[in-house]
Amino acid sequence: MTEEQLDFLDMSLWDVFKEPEEADYRGRTLMSYFTELDRGHTRLGVAGKIRTPQEAEATMAAGVDWIMLGRAAILHHDFPHRYRADPVFKPVELPVTRQYLNEEGVSEKFVAYLSRRPGFVADAG
């Protein structure tokens, strides 16, 4: 990164707020080990359980250059617009119905995939 060989680092952490398993490294997030690196001009983007506007703000404040939304974008195709209009909007809670996902523009194939995830689709089965 400091040798200007990378434009960006894209990290999917599953949970940006998770602490390391190793006792010697606990007390701070896994993400912090990367935000505190000397990255030169390398940009850092992260994903992982960023579900609410408050979590998006906290993640950005931790020193990343951008965030990527997974579940939040599936549940609210217009999450960035909702966030801009109401920075404290409350995202829908899981599980959601197939109909809800269809109304958010989720394809039937992807709904079928999400139905295999416990607690995601209310009328799965």
Structural account:
The chain has a three-stranded parallel β-sheet with strand order 1-2-3, with helices on one face. Helices cover 31% and strands 10% of the residues. The protein has 125 residues and is of the alpha/beta class. The protein has two domains: 8-91, no CATH class; 94-125, no CATH class. The chain has six helices and three strands, in the order E-H-E-H-E-H-H-H-H.
> How many structural domains are formed by the residues?
2
Helices and strands, in order, run as: EHEHEHHHH
Cα-atom Rg, whole angstroms? 17 Å
Q: How many DSSP helices?
A: 6
The counted number of beta strands is 3
Give me a quick take on this structure:
This protein has 125 residues and is an alpha/beta fold. The chain has helices at 32-35, 53-61, 71-75, 79-85, 98-103, 108-115, and strands at residues 8-12, 43-47, 66-68.
What are the main properties of this structure?
10% strand; single chain; three-stranded parallel β-sheet; 125 residues; alpha/beta; 31% helix; 2 domains
Topology of helices and strands:
Elements (H helix, E strand, L loop, with lengths): L7 E5 L19 H4 L7 E5 L5 H9 L4 E3 L2 H5 L3 H7 L12 H6 L4 H8 L10
Parallel strand pairs: 1-2, 2-3
